[in-house]
Design goal:
It is built from eleven helices and eleven strands. It is α/β, with parallel strands linked by helices. It folds into two domains: 220 residues, Type I PLP-dependent aspartate aminotransferase-like (Major domain) (Aspartate Aminotransferase, domain 2, 3-Layer(aba) Sandwich); 99 residues, Alpha-Beta Complex (Aspartate Aminotransferase, domain 1), CATH 3.90.1150.10. Strand 4, helix 6 and strand 5 form a beta-alpha-beta unit. Helix 3 crosses helix 4 and helix 9 packs parallel to helix 11. The longest helix is centred in the last third of the chain and has 23 residues. The chain is globular and about 70 Å long. The termini are far apart. It binds pyridoxal-5'-phosphate.
């Protein structure tokens, strides 16, 4: 298949924004090309950062950093202002508003649909199986020649499970569409990443974020890996200097703390299993789903059949300043709450409170 056959014509023909730094990459020259403040910056605490200059539009050092720390080839990397920005850019690259379609197996992360709606791109929502796995037949039934993207999330938010790799690969083989696998929570799973398959499938895109395991939601940084052709298209449409210098700096510091990130992940997984065991012992709880992520999906029992228990618990927790996420209105998730794994103290407080409420 030819990736370029899937791209919007205006994107193929687009003359991307150019700057003098596309030609002259030197950081130490006399830079009088971008109307910056050559005198300096008013931000003076980390002077070596040169915040008076625009950041590197080619993400060169970010790509180099990730290649060396996470062993992903730099030419297969693109960074966004959170993975949310990359979701939006992928839709803008591949989908003609009012014409093309995006297929979303649900229940899943809500931003895929929101980003499509913003771009005036129609979505087709299909259901995951009862085990929250890809239902290949439903996808085949709902796929059309205008389906440009299929969004998958593994481990899936809010169900917490990894998707079967073989099903994802089947989709890559079978459909002439971009298959996006969002691995925002992959650090909390033992295995199951599709990143190694990028070299085998030109239509596969894997999304990652620093917002979860790395604890960097505040710096807004995500990345994707895909074949070079897709990466170049993303560079073509992104805002020239999308990743700011403070974010880049924070990442550089944080990547040196790989061991700390691994400690956090181990702690969160341990707490996740502790909380799961505790919640499972409560008679008012029907199911605590297995999770490969940093949250638990909890289904409440409904002796009355009215399925109002999850919302009642949510409200009572909120009265005590404990905020969890109601997922009851998503398909297949009646009477379900999604609870993020906190630190030990927060989890203890949640457990004590929920025990009393139920
Ligand atoms: C599955 C999934 N993807 C992406 C994101 C957003 O990530 P970022 O903070 O990198 O935009 C979230 C945030 O909750 C998420 O759950």
């Amino acid at each position: 298949m030819e990736i370029k056959d899937l791209v919007r014509k205006n994107i193929l023909n687009l003359k991307p924004y150019t700057s003098a730094r596309d030609i002259y990459e030197g950081e130490n020259g006399i830079l009088l090309d971008a109307n910056e403040n050559s005198w300096g910056s008013t931000f003076t605490s980390i002077e070596s950062l040169s915040l008076n200059r625009y950041p590197d539009p080619h993400q060169k050092d970010l790509r180099q950093l990730i290649e060396s720390v996470l062993s992903i080839p730099k030419e297969n990397l693109f960074f966004g202002v959170g993975s949310d920005e990359i979701i939006d850019l992928l839709i803008r690259v591949f989908c003609n508003p009012g014409k093309d379609k995006v297929l979303i197996p649900e229940p899943t992360y809500g931003m895929y649909k929101v980003a499509c709606d913003i771009n005036d791109v129609e979505t087709t929502e299909v259901l995951l199986t009862d085990k929250f796995q890809i239902d290949l037949n439903t996808i085949r039934e709902n796929y059309t020649s205008n389906t440009k993207i299929i969004f998958l999330c593994s481990p899936n938010n809010p169900t917490g499970n990894l998707l079967n790799k073989q099903d994802v690969i089947q989709l890559c083989n079978e459909f002439k569409s971009i298959i996006i696998v969002d691995e925002a929570y992959i650090d909390f799973a033992n295995d199951g990443s599709l990143i190694d398959e990028i070299k085998n499938y030109p239509n596969l895109v894997v999304l990652r974020t620093f917002s979860k395991a790395w604890g960097l939601a505040g710096i807004r940084l995500g990345y994707c890996t895909a074949n070079v052709e897709i990466i170049n298209l993303l560079f073509k449409v992104k805002a020239p200097y999308n990743i700011n210098s403070l974010t880049r700096y924070a990442l550089e510091i944080s990547l040196k703390n790989l061991k700390l990130k691994e400690k956090y992940v181990r702690g969160i997984i341990k707490e996740r299993e502790r909380l799961k065991n505790q919640l499972e012992s409560l008679p008012g709880i029907e199911t605590v789903y297995n999770s490969d992520a940093n949250f638990l999906l909890v289904k409440f029992a409904s002796p009355s059949g009215k399925n109002e228990e999850a919302r009642a618990v949510l409200a009572k927790l909120a009265e005590r300043n404990i905020i969890v996420r109601d997922r009851s209105s998503q398909p297949k998730l009646q009477n379900c709450l999604r609870i993020s794994i906190g630190n030990e103290e927060e989890n203890d407080l949640l457990w004590d409170t929920i025990k009393k409420i139920i």
